[in-house]
Amino acid sequence: MSQQPLDTVTLSDPSLDTLTQELAAIQQTGSKRIALLGSRHVPIMHQQLIEMMSYALVLGGNRLLTSGAIGTNSAAIKGAMRADSNLLTVILPQSLSRQPKESRSQLENVIHLIENSKNDNLSLGEASAMCNSEIVARCDQLICFAFHDSNTLLKTCHEAEDLRKIVTLFYFD
Questions:
Q1: What is the DSSP string of 40-109?
Q2: What per-residue confidence (pLDDT) applies to 173?
């Protein structure tokens, strides 16, 4: 049985294409469109870390995309707004009036706010899944904070991977 030398790569290997794309994305200079999504049920310490991360990403010149809910998304909005509110886009699963009262005041200050009032007749779960798909379609990279049973978020991560986006998934549990 003949062995290939270690420095030989089979060009038909699909992982080679994925690896090449991920390396190119990591080395890319300039700004990226980074989606930051996650669970609504986040401990306060984690919210503070997410806020710092979004602040740093936006200070680095990246455009941040998120949705408008309490927890992860609220922390991401807070950090991005502190750094440069013009580099933040928030896409809502439904209209602003359908958002929780505790997040409306924050959302009203977002410059680039996109409402999906056409989804007001859907359940929040259905509307959120559609919203996450829209966010993933617009980003270069997805950072997600989830629990192992966060089905909608995990499905969003798989969708992003299928679209060959860079996905970083952090688990709370």
A1: S---HHHHHHHHHHHHHHHHTT-EEEE---TTHHHHHHHHHHHHHGGGEEEE-SS-GGGS-HHHHHHHTT
A2: 85
Q: How many CB atoms lie within 10 A of CB 154?
A: 16
What number of other Cβ atoms are within 10 A of residue 138's Cβ?
A: 14
Mean pLDDT for 147-154 is 94
Phi/psi at 169 (5° precision): -115, 120
pTM for this one? 0.81
Q: Are 148 and 173 in contact (CB under 8 A)?
A: yes
Position 33 confidence tier, pLDDT thresholds 50, 70, 90: very high
| Domains assigned to the chain | 30-171 (3.40.50.450)
Q: What angle do CA 74, 79, 80 make, to 5 degrees?
A: 95
Q: Has residue 9 got a pLDDT over 50? A: no
